[in-house]
Design goal:
- By secondary structure, this protein is mainly α.
- It has four helices and no strands.
Length: 133
Amino acid sequence: MACFIVPAVEAVVVKAVEKSAKKRELAAAENHSEDKQTEEKLPLSVKLKWLSGMLWGGVILLLFEHIWHGEVVPWFPFLTAMSDPADAMEMLKEMATVGVTMAVLVTAVWLVMCKVADVIYRRSAEEPQKESA
């Protein structure tokens, strides 16, 4: 019924953190204070952009599916489960179980993706050094 709300909230928070990280990275680049760790890994803002995209994509698909099934309507209260207290409890239970599980699973996949990307990025940064030697 409303399982898409949990990943949507996470996506909003991630987008705000992404914007903050991007500002911090730009400020660090202006000060020319780059350290070795930054050179070996992708910037955090890029990784957060991936997570944001994954979350928003899932939210849009789930929202479309809920509209298709008539669970989300264009009039107040927007969620059909909100009109009946018994349905509202079922909706909150679904958000706590299904919504949280989806958000955690997407975040876990993103973490693995970031680790793999760092390994690939590090290898590609080391290759030119080996070729020149």
